[in-house]
Amino acid sequence: MKVNGKPCRTIWVAPHNARCVQIIDQRWLPHRFVVEDITSVADMATAIQDMHVRGAGLIGAAAGYGMYLAALAAPQQSIAVFMDALQSDSRSLQATRPTAVNLEWALARQLDALRAAPPQIDVRIELARTTAQAIADEDAEYCRRIGVHGQALLAEISARKGGAPVNVLTHCNAGWLAFVDYGTATAPVYAAHDAGVAVHVWVDETRPRNQGARLTAWELGQHGVPHTVIADNAGGHLMQHAQVDIVLTGTDRTTYTGDVANKIGTYLKALAAHDNGVPFYVALPSSTFDWKMRDGVREIPIEQRAAHEVRTISGWHVDQEVEVLLLPEGSAAANYAFDVTPARLVTGLITERGICSASAAGVLGLYPERAAGQRGAGSSAGG
Ligand code: MRU
Known about the structure:
Shape: globular
Oligomer: single chain
Low-confidence stretches: 377-383
CATH architecture of the largest domain: 3-Layer(aba) Sandwich
Largest sheet: 7 strands, mixed
Number of strands: 18
Distance between the termini: 34 Å
Bound molecules: 5-S-methyl-1-O-phosphono-5-thio-D-ribulose
Radius of gyration: 21 Å
CATH class of the largest domain: Alpha Beta
CATH topology of the largest domain: Rossmann fold
CATH superfamily of the largest domain: Translation initiation factor eif-2b, domain 2
Number of domains: 2
Mean pLDDT: 96
Order of helices and strands: EEEEEHHHHHEHEHEHEEEHEEHHEEEEEH
Strand order of the largest sheet: 8-7-6-9-12-17-18
Number of helices: 12
């Protein structure tokens, strides 16, 4: 996508230093656009854990590049020592954030590729670089395709409304900042907007870290998409009053049975959508499916972050970021970062291969190569 009119991705290898990976440090958006140099796997782990980069696809891409940086620094006495170091670095990266399954997926892809490669260290370092690049390129391409498939839904609503703006509600940031490019929930919006379909987006602010207010609003603005930021609790009211035509969200992990983990508050939006007959779609690349889990509510690990994020709020004052205390000094705070929306509340899943129902039958219909070995896939089909 574009920043100030220039094409930009969220992560890339520095043009003049192949030992440096560059990221947009999202903690500063929307007030400052900061590019950070990452030169070690430890720095990449910090960038993921402290959310300089965040969002399922981008966490996966960052993990892929983290393994490349790990390969550059790993001891070279023998191939066994080299691979042991990479295995240990992959465990450090894995420990950074538990909910987004793209992290585990990208680390496994790197380790599988490296183990299968010829046992020369220089060959494996180069392979770690090309695998990281492939993960990033594939993420961007899959998000582009999600846009193509999802755009048809928006075009259909637009036609039904005689060309009046299609009102989309989205939660958190599943935009291009959460991936390498295009985003998932936003990809259909960008594609429709570019094709001349009138679209307006209701942007949930998404406490406590305000990814909607800070990031989704910024990227929609950069692309010229009309949008309005709302308090998290406004969605139900808007749906009751026919102000929302469709809810589009992303996801950090979706079971192959269609249960969707996403930013805390998504479940409440799905309940409100269900109650008001508003279609609720979730957009994701295949790297966000968990092919092993069947019951998302019981099995998906839910990250709990520091209470500090709930107790305080930060924003821009004069020319600097300031943080202020919101709560009484003595009040306890809890910070559940994600929730799980059961498949029965999800109208459909928009993937790079097309749109399917949120059920094992729907998902495995699109990904038949995954059908073998699923727990109970042949039985009640979930959802
Ligand atoms: O905690 P974050 O910012 O990494 O959470 C991820 C998200 O932004 C959302 O949950 C998003 O909707 C899905 S990730 C594409």
